What we know:
Zincin-like, three-stranded mixed sheet, 3 strands
Amino acid sequence: MARHPKALMPALAGVRTELERILIQTNYFVDTPFSWIGISIRFGMKTEAKPHFQHIDRKDGELPLAIEIETAQMIGADLEQLKNLFRSAALRALIAAAERYNCPDARLREMFASLPTPQSSAEEDLD
């Protein structure tokens, strides 16, 4: 059975905290039909360029998004490599939501552009 890297949860938590702060600072949620975004990062066979959107939850205002990353990229990855992998996936999802719902995304795009080049063969262009 495959084991997750020890740095998996600290990497996810670190990226979540970092991106939450940016979303608040940039007024990402002003004038949107949702109150917050839940991003499920799925571990699979490929790295997806765009997230899967679900319907906004009318009870709690969540916009659920899901995006897959290639599990092979996690093998042997240290904390910073995992953070970059999760950061890339989360930024893709947030930028796609920003495009759909007209949210400010300049800071998110800057962050995405500054990420190290990924090692997978996945499409890395946001367009």
